[in-house]
Amino acid sequence: MKFRYIYIILLGLLSVPALAMTKLSLPAIFFEVDERSAFVMIPATPAAGNPWVWYAPTLRNYPHHSQQFYFEQLLEHGIAVAGYDLGEVRGSSKSSEQFSAFYEAMLAKGYSPKPILLGQSRGGLMLLCWSFRNPDKVQAFVGIYPVCNIASWPLQHSKSSVLADYGLSEEAIRQQLDAFNPAGNLAGLAKAGVPMFIIHGDSDRLVPLYDNSAVIQTAYELLDGKVDLKVIPGKGHAEISEFFTDLDLLEFVFKQTKK
Length: 259
Prior knowledge:
40% helix; 8 strands; Rossmann fold; globular; eight-stranded mixed sheet; alpha/beta
């Protein structure tokens, strides 16, 4: 009998989603979508309409303590925070479809059909690529030094992840950059009136401002889209207070949840 109990306990541990083994900065409920791990942080008193912020990247080590201030403020204002771990994806149509399964799971839990997307670094590319394929399902986009250009950081520093996600050669991807990059596919978001707020440092060498966020700003404004790009002088790609305690970012999110 003793060994039977041990066996049951071990089975229970194995059934826990992988993400549950990480240390999130705040309490969360873990669940699975298509055998991939997801989480949702639930506010004590949800705001009207059950708004939620979709954070990316959600990985073995993200989110963590750097995002805690934002998440605490969101929860205090009745806004849930959620994420879905697909691993190191780079915005292909296939991974976007997988993200849609998570979106549908959140709707089934009673959350708003229009989340606010919060993409940090490579999470920006994940969510921008999902959003331009689903412009009617997005309330707003928020970026923290987001990757927006496949030819920038992804192909320069994570080529294997790009090729694996798209299932194409580097040459084939480069030939279709306009079709794959968010900047060439923003018309639907602009038509839907999806606003954007992006914060980026002008000394970012890993994800350069002018190859990424500035490209999105130019392309979106040409389509009459509304984008607020806040440039932080002298700061690079770092998890520091300038990027993770920004009150303008929070005010933008709060404003969107009231719409």
